[in-house]
Amino acid sequence: MSLYEICQALQDSAVGTSIRESIWTFPIIETVHVLGLAVSVGILVMLDLRLVGAGMRHIVAADIMHKLKRWYLAGFAAMFASGALLFWSEAEKCYRSPTFRIKLTFLALAGLNALFFEIKYVPSMKNWDATGVTPSGARAVGWVSLICWLGVIGFGRWTAYGMK
Amino acid sequence: MIHATLPFFRWADHTWIAQWIRDSTWVFALIEVFHLFGLTLLLGTLTVLNLRLFGWGLRGYALKSVATDALPWTYVGMAVSITSGILLFVSEAMKCYGSLPFFLKMGLLAAALLFTFTFNRNLTQADPPSPVVSKCAACLSIALWFGVGLAGRAIAFF
Questions:
Q1: Chain B closest CA to A68's CA: distance in Å?
Q2: B43 contact residues in A (CB cutoff 8 A)
Q3: Mutation test of the interface with chain B: which of A48, A56, A82, A102, choosing the one with the most B Cβ atoms within 10 A?
Q4: Which of A41, A45, A61, B134 is the most buried (most CB within 10 A)?
């Protein structure tokens, strides 16, 4: 079974069809997707802004990461769960959508970037975070994260627009 | 009462900018993308501030510090959302006129803005309010702003 056929089967499945044709379910899932995004990515953007040195002078990056962790993780969980359901209902359309592929690429890059930060800069965070001098590599991580999430949001919205 | 506003909606719907947005296939989508960028910044920073106000999240920090750090970016998000929102509105003014969620959203938005520029703004200067007031204010602020988001999303669907 090719990826295309899997997507087609998903879209045509009972769950996919009932979400797509529902009056309330689809709008509710989309709303959860957008609000989950606002909370999780919104908090992440604050961390990125701190890393690149654009404000957030009073708060150290480690505290944004750790003290707000349960909140942005909850937001991410809501966003991914609702995103999976939206994909389920329109999988075949997503497969054919170039903007959806760009969105997923940005999402993967954002994940790799976060992983790189976790491995390379988080272990030594205690040494540089409180000094207010962010290593240039960590600053680059902040910029890459900002760009990737702008890409995810932008191409995500564009994907929905292209499907109308 | 809503009938009295009809000429305004009609005027907005007929402006050249509204027609320009409608005639283009991609300008509307681009403006919506910016609306979403602004909303993310706005709701994200307000979530952090209101969590602290409630006594959660960045607990180790003075409320004043969190407010001073978060609010400038809240205002940036607000400026982006409102500017793009006005453009989206004019391009669909007549649709908005017939939309109950639109009027609900505008009502909530007015209340949310008023609350942000009075109560939240004071947090950067004055001493923190009592825990009870803080908790109620945090709930109200989150309810108002997420209400704006919910009602906004509903415009597209109903």
A1: 5
A2: 35, 38-39, 42
A3: A56
A4: A41
pLDDT tens digits for B16-64? Answer: 999 999 999 889 999 999 999 999 999 999 999 999 999 999 999 999 9
**pTM (2 decimals)?**
0.94
Listed residue (A162, A94, A109, A100) closest to A140, CA to CA: A109
| Residue A62 to residue A44: CA distance in whole angstroms | 12
Judge whether B38 and B77 are in contact, CB under 8 Å: yes
Q: What one-character-per-residue DSSP string does B12-66 give?
A: HHHSHHHHHHHH-SSHHHHHHHHHHHHHHHHHHHHHHHHHHHHT-SSTTS-HHHH
What pLDDT, in 10s, does the model give residues A29-55? 999 999 999 999 999 999 999 999 998
Residue B123: pLDDT over 90? no
Distance CA(B79)–CA(B95), nearest Å, equals 24
Q: First and final CA of chain B: distance in angstroms?
A: 21
Contacts of B45 in chain A (CB under 8 A): 42, 46
Per-domain boundaries in chain A: 22-163
Considering only the beta carbons, identify the residue of A27, A43, A157 that sits closest to B47: A43
**Which residues in chain A are contacts of B150 at CB distance < 8 A?**
31, 35
